[in-house]
Each structure stands twice: as structure tokens, then as C-alpha cells.
Amino acid sequence: MTTGIKIAEVGDVDDGEGIRIDKAATGTEDDIALFSAAGRYYALNDTCTHEKASLADGWVEDGAVECPLHVGKFCLRTGEVLSMPANESTVAHRVEVQGEDIILYPGETPSEETE
Amino acid sequence: MTTNDSPQSVVIVGGGVAGISAARELRRLGYDGDLTIVDAGAAPYDRPPLSKDYLLGTKTMPDIHLAPAKWFADQNVTLVTTTRVERIEPDAGQVLLSDASVLHADAIILATGGTPRPLPVPGGDLPAVHVLRSAEDADRLRAALTPGTRLLVIGAGLIGAETASTALHLGASVTLVDPMSVPLLPAVGPEVAAFLHAQHPERGITTIHGSVTGIAQESQTSPLVATLATGDTIEADLVLAGIGITADTALAEAAGLDIDNGVIVDYSQRTSHPRVFAAGDSSRRRGPDGVLSRRAEHWDAAEGTGRAAAAGVLGREPVTEISSWFWTDRHGIHVEGVGDMSPSGTTVLRGTLGDGPATVFRLDGDRVVGAVSIDDSNAIRAARRMIDGRISVTAEDLSNPEHNLRSLLRSTASKG
Lengths: 115, 416
Ligand SMILES: Cc1cc2nc3c(=O)[nH]c(=O)nc-3n(C[C@H](O)[C@H](O)[C@H](O)COP(=O)(O)OP(=O)(O)OC[C@H]3O[C@@H](n4cnc5c(N)ncnc54)[C@H](O)[C@@H]3O)c2cc1C
Ligand code: FES
What we know:
The structure holds 2 protein chains of 2 kinds. By secondary structure, chain A is mostly beta strands. Chain A is built from 1 helix and 10 strands. Chain A is globular and about 40 Å long. By secondary structure, chain B is an alpha/beta fold. Helix content of chain B is about 30%, strand content about 30%. The longest helix of chain B is centred in the middle third of the chain and has 19 residues, at about 185-205.
């Protein structure tokens, strides 16, 4: 099990929105897009697998994020690619709320119960 | 088969976005019969980058493949490349290929796209007059575009403007000529059309309002001389004609299907023959009222009609209609449009054109009917949902960049 990294605090991300957290702060291979949707938090690699857009700027709806450039869609929980023109899934990371802190577990697959 | 049985074999003609999207959707919907895609070219690739990163050289063929090779194997999709479909026999359920083989097909999806319209003037067929539709076209153009090349782009629509912008980046000296003083008016409305067109001279492109009536070249090594209707001439090393496409309807026509500047289809993308469906740039919808829609020539429409054709083949409910959407990139900005910007009505500006993200909304009463944005995708995502959900809005809701459009949508949705 990897150690968690605090990447944000509750309230930093509005519901239905995403924020980008620099890889310098997370130590991950890519920046992290942290989303809040329907009371849960989700973390994905931020760079769209199609071109270079930041998924944190995407449109969050129905458990998925739509890329801001060409509407490629990814599942928030699993990172699975759901629509073209993207054709590769992205990486989802486990996040946990501990008190007021949002903790990222880089590389850990989120469970069904991701907060 | 009778047309009511579920098909056991489907052949898709054309591996563009419409064909690939149809194949993906067939498998997603659980179709597990034979599935073959035939394309005249090599492995299926995406076209939008051809005038952008691919032409620039920052993307190569593997980067623009529509699906990785593994996908075809995983999904059990047979891909037949560099082979043309010569003829379809819908009654017999046969697809005849250029290598003389014959495929059986319970259902056929025509996703043949379009062909660039040749320049209809004397000299329009000279070798230095290029078009841009395929990767080969892009490779040829790229090879000819060395720094200092004088490029004359005829047609300042989406592809002409994008190519002009990319060529400028490659060091070419670019002249852009169009018979409209402000091109793209119906697509983006007057405000954004004027803004976009004014960008060209600001970046160093010479824009000319006029029509080219002929192109001459003394010898193969001498420059091209294009003559305008005014009698003025322009010297150039190469020409790109971006004057639109014609739908590839030859197979449908030979099979006796209804066509009219596109293969005519209903809302399940079914043609006039029950076994044959059509999608993408080559298809054109006829509504239940008999009225033909304008044929779409955008990526998203091709993707959506591909999915709809898959649903049609399997006898599923048609895919929910959503408003049309497109994007275009030039001079470092990302433009998106949704819905219809052509009707009259009021317009509302959010932000300032030319200064960061900005969007123009077109309203009919309290309903959004269209929107175009510069570097402001989420405004278009919101507008699309406002149009499709027929949500009442006020000009004030839209114009204030401080108002979050997603929150606005959510609050109207929760009001029910
Ligand atoms: C340079 C360029 C830039 C673009 N940029 C944008 C953009 O920024 N935004 C946007 O929204 N849209 C853009 N588009 C439009 C978009 O790419 C098209 O709408 C889309 O490609 C249409 O997809 P399609 O599958 O219908 O047709 P196509 O992509 O044309 O695919 C049709 C395929 O069918 C094959 N075919 C045809 N006849 C036969 C036959 N008899 N046998 C075998 N194969 C056959 C062809 O080889 C071709 O591969 C652009 C288009 C171009 C050319
Ligand atoms: S960059 Fe994300 S879909 Fe194209």
C-alpha cells in the first residue's frame, strides 16, 4: 500500500467541478484531476489520452468527465474510456476523505466505494 | 434473413469516424455476429488533425489512428484495408470487393464520407493545386510547404482557414481568398465570423475578398498565376482548394437507393433499402415530415450517426437526437459551435471577443438556439444542454462571466 498524499481540502472543489493538481505536488507521472461529483471525490490522470487537454477543465456529468477539447469521455471511478475520439483509458487513483483532508493514493485502484 | 431477424453479418463500407463508431456501438449493444469494415485506405485514422497537428508534423499516423490495432482483434472486427467496395447487392446481401472477393452481409452500413470538390476553373486540375481530405493529401501538401513557399488558399471556410493557419506556422507566405467578405457566417453568426476572419491579416495572412476564375502555369517549374474575377492576378507556388466536398454516394446510387446530395436515410439511418444503412458525411436525413435536413459535415455528426446506424441495424430505439456540435482550431484558438447560429434573433455576448474565453449565444425568446465560443468549451457544453433541454434563460444569466453556467443548469434542472 502506498502512502497517501494530501492534495486538497474538503471545499476546494465545488460539486460537479474538477481541479488540477500539479504532478510536482503529487509525485505522479501526470498531473492529477480531482473531481467532486454527487458528494464523492474522484482522481484521474489529468491529461486526456487523446491529445493534450486537461480533464480537470472538463464537463462532469453522470459519473463521467467529458474532455474540454473533443468530448472524449472517461468514467470518473475507473478511468475507462467511454467515447471517441479518445480510444485509451486513463488511470484512476484512490482518494479518501480524512477529516477535512482529501488524500490521494497514487496508483491504487479505487474501490467501488470511492468517496 | 428477413429484415426483422437480427443480423448475423454486418459489413461497414468506410473506416472513417462514422464507420468505426458504428462498429464500436454494434459491439457495445451486444451484437456478436460477423463484423467487417472495408476501407480503400490503410488503417482507419481521424481526419481533423490532417489540417492541424498532422500537417504541422507534431502528430504522426499512429497518433491519429481511430482505434489501436488491438481493438480490432479484441472486438473481433475484421478490418479489410486498401480494398474498395465496388458494388453492393442489397437484395442478395452481397458486398463485392476490388480484389474480386464477395462478402455476405445481412446488413450493410455505408459510411463512405466525401470527396473534395475539384476547383471548377481552368487550371483547377494542375498538379500544384492541392485538396485536403486524406493523409496522402496532407503528406503531399506538407512536402510542398517549405518555408517561404507562397501558398494560395481558395476558400476560407473551416479547412481553408485551418490550413492557412498551419501553413503560416510552417513558414509559408499565405494568401486566402474567398468570395464572401466574411466567411462562415451561417456556421458561427456575424460576430464570431468577423472576429475569426480578422485574425488572418493580424497574423500575417493576406486576405482577398474575391473569386479565382482561372489558374495558369507556363511550365512545370514556373509559378502558378491565379486570375481573380477583377482581372487581378496572384502568383503562388501552390494552391489549396478548400471549397467543400461532395458526398460519396456512388455505391448507393448504383444499387438504386434514394440519394439527393447524400444517401437519404430516416432517423434510424436506414436508406430506401431495408438492409442498407448510411452514416456520416455521405448520409442525409429525411424527417418523418419528408423534409430533407442539411447534410452535416462535422466529426460529431459522423460519430453520432454511426452510433444511430448501429442501433438501426439491431432494430433498437433511435439514439436521442442532440444538437449539432463542431470545433475548429486556428491561430492558437479553439472554437466550438453548437446548434443553429443562422436564424435571426438576439445575441448575447459572454466575455470579450479577442480577450480570453468568450461565447456568443443566439436566443429565440428565452431559449438558446445556438452558441459559438472561443476557448470556452464549457459554455458550449452548457449551451448544448440548454438547447436540448429547452431551458428558459435570461440574457443576464448568460452574459455575466461570473455566473457559473453549470450551476445555472443544475438549478433549473432541480426546479424541474
Ligand atoms: C482536414 C480536415 C479537418 C477537419 N477538421 C474538423 C474539425 O476540426 N472539427 C470537426 O467537427 N470536423 C472536422 N472535419 C470533418 C470530419 O473529419 C468529417 O466530418 C468526418 O471525417 C466524416 O467522417 P465519415 O466517417 O463520414 O467519412 P470519412 O472520414 O471521409 O471516411 C470515409 C471512408 O470511407 C472510405 N470509402 C469511401 N468509399 C469507399 C469504397 N467504395 N470502398 C471502401 N472504402 C471507401 C474512404 O476511404 C474513407 O476512409 C475535418 C475534415 C477534414 C478533411
Ligand atoms: S483532447 Fe480529449 S478528446 Fe481530444
